[in-house]
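sorry to bug you again but im stuck and you know this stuff better than me. what follows is a protein written twice so to speak, once as letters and once as structure tokens for the fold. id like you to explain what the token line says about the fold, in plain words if possible. anything you notice is useful, everything is just below.
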Amino acid sequence: MMKILRVLLLMVLVVTAIVNGQTENPIKSVRGTWINFAYMDERNKYMNPAGTDMTSPELWRLKMKELSEMGMEYIVIMYAANERKSYYPSTFMAPAYTTGRESPIDAVMNAADEYNLKVFMSTGWAVNQDDNILTQEILETQLKILRETAGLYSKHKSFYGWYYPCEGVIVPYLSQEHVNITNRLSAEARSLTPSAKIMVSPYGLRSVDFSERLFSAQISKLNVDIIAYQDEIGCVVEKLPLQKMKENFARLREMHNANNIAFWANSEIFTWEKGLNVRNSALIPAPMPRFLSQLAGHTKAGVDEIISFAVCGILDKPGSEIPLGHPLFAGSAYRDYMDWKNGKGRWKLLGATFLGNLKHEGISSKVTYGFTPAEQNSSGNLTDGLLGAETTYDKNWLGFDKNDLIATIDLGTVQKIKTLAARFLNYRPYEVYLPGFVRFSLSNDGYDFRELPAITFDNYTYDYYDCWIDIAKIDIDEEARFIRVFAVNTARKWTFADEVMVNPE
């Protein structure tokens, strides 16, 4: 009976949304972020800018407000101490903040109370970012931190749970020692804060052998409520990681269905300014198309929530009184993300293609090419309804080596055209580049074509490591039978395209 009532309630909500003209974004948004207080190394160059007091109560009151405006619900404190100095009033560590003023953790908790945010309190780091939870000194120090912060903050409305920052590594499964130590912390946390949620965020998913029963067995032994798996897309620990990540996350959903641990994604939305995955290279915003593909992958896998390392310091509200993040790219990354959330621009259509929701009126239309696609990239065509993935090895891509893409599509009859779009791949390491511009032209007879305005792509300066798909889209109100697409190969390297869409739904 209750199940029937829930279904009926859902139907009412859906109908209400339709009546009111509301459409829910089919891709899950980011609902939480890590925050940190100290400049650790070059990776924090923009997240914790030089000259910015990261322990300032004013800064954290402002950032909690801005994160709330973005739609964040969860705040994860990265660490409660560093270099044996605390970011809260500790009895056994000196303060890492100016004495006599509100501590940064107090400021976060008080502001989170005000903005209805949920905070995961950190138990570390005890010494530095290289702490090993398996070390007895570190474990004992983290237990002390847990006891002190529980006493100070567990009564706050915003206190939601615990985060253990000494990340477990899956190679190819969690060690029994790590499980035991995690559960030792959890036993203490449960005794002090019985209703609090406990979250961990392990890495190394790329190394998992899902046929190995020990992986699932070790996960099920953890005395935690939430596992937020690092998707490792930002770290780029291997080339072309998106497809493997999506496959692995889908497998995780199956596994988590068999236990009572919530399945979250930790979406890495950064890329690298210089060297890849090293401490002397700054973290900067990833291209929005890559980020959106990550969110789509997590959504398709059925994660319960998406949180990110890190919204704070990677996406930053333009015009903020206290800016964090890259001075040029953090603001534009914020605008792209919020435009997507609000259904603006090309992002909704691009996201739909990542979900596989491709329907358009040009499917199966005849295509003729000005330049023949390269032999190794000519198995499909631009109107077969088949989409390529973020890899150059996908046969759904048509490749044009040093040549422009020039293709004419015959719809068979004159039709009303509202939207035209085409998808392209970018992967600099393999010399695959987005076109310099894309231009659509229309004709009723196949001879006289009228040009539409050219479409250019966003310029992502730092594209050394990431593979992503972008879309050229134009909204019009025209009639035509023939559509010509011209994508200029400015780089004179490779242009990869997979579909030209006519009135996509």
